[in-house]
Input
Amino acid sequence: MDSQIIVSGLITYLGLIILLTFHEFGHAWMGMKLGDDTARLQGRVSLNPLVHIDPIGTVLLPLFMIFGPSGLSRFVIGWAKPVPFNPGNLDNRWRDEMLIAMAGPAMNVILAVALVAFARVAVMFGSDVATDLLLQMASLSLVLCFFNLIPIPPLDGSHVLRNLTGMTYETYFQFSRFGFIAIILVLQIPLVREILGVLVGGTLDAMIFSFHFPS
Output
């Protein structure tokens, strides 16, 4: 494998780890703010990547997608260890669970906006390398945002679906046992990857337009 591909892949993976860490921090922080100390007591309100790593979603799958067959190498996703929370500690269980679930994707949108803003500054200084890298990370952050909205456990969209359908926690946890298999299978569907690509590309283009990048 070409050394440039390896370096590029490692940079992408490092960026993914950072973005996933902020994503999970968002969940944990929101839970704490809503009165649930479960995540804080387990050390999850943290920007230390080690406390959020999931062996499959943070290590095996992303590395395979980066360094595996060329058909997947340009499409990288992943997830971290789900942040725990105790519904009994929430004042408004239905609303607060939704807020906790959406805090992760919201954090990815915030990070994408910040990265595009820094990319705009890099353009002002004429640094094409920094601009490309920052926009690549912004795109990856948006991929994580939209990917996590897919309603398959343990992704955030599944918590929203559980709330909207009134699914019991017992049933949800039964589905969660096989969730990662379902995610891998769904990602093999070209239409799913195409839809994610359209959502990410359209959102990133809107952000770039908002920051008045030169044509």
User: Anything to note?
Assistant: The radius of gyration is 18 Å. Residues 3-210 form one domain. Residues 93-124 form the longest helix (32 residues). The chain has ten helices and no strands.
